[in-house]
Amino acid sequence: HNIDPKRIVLTGFSQGAHTTFLVALTHPEMFAGAIPISGVYDARVAPVPDKPGAKLPRFAILNGELDPEADNNRQTAKLFEKIGSPVSSTSTRASATPSRRKSIKISVRR
To answer: Which residues pair with 91 in a beta bridge?
Structure first.
C-alpha cells in the first residue's frame, strides 16, 4: 500500500493514551502526530529522547478538566514544549450527561 508517512497519527484513550505516549516517543520517526486522550504520561516508562535535535511527532494532548490526569497532561505539554516538540494541550468540561458535553477544537503548532 502507498501510505504517506506524513499522515500517520497514533491515538489512544486512557491506558491506550499511555501507550500512545510510549510508542510515539520510542518510535518518533514512524508518526506525524500523536493524540493521547485522558491518559497519563510517565517519563520513567517513556522518557523523552535526550538527543539534541531529536524530532518528535506533533502531540495533541486531550483530557477533561475533571480528569485526574489533567495536571499531568498540562505538565507533559510544558515539558514537550520545553524540548521543542510541537504540542497542544486541550481540556474540555467533563460531564456524564452527553447533552452537556462541549466540543473541542484541536490546534497543533507546526
So the answer is: 63
Contacts of 73 (CB under 8 A, 6+ apart): 36, 40, 41, 61, 62, 63, 67, 89, 91
What are the residues facing 61 on neighbouring strands? 89
Q: Going residue by residue through the chain, which has 110 residues, state the pLDDT in tens, using 9 for 90 and above.
A: 888 888 999 999 999 999 999 999 999 989 999 999 988 999 999 888 776 667 889 999 998 888 888 889 889 999 888 888 888 888 887 533 344 445 555 555 55
**This prediction's pTM:** 0.78
Residue 77 DSSP symbol: H
Neighbours of 97 (CB within 10 A): 6
Q: Give the helix ranges, DSSP H, for the chain.
A: 15-26, 70-82
Q: If you search the block for the grid coordinates 524530532, which residue do you land on?
A: 55
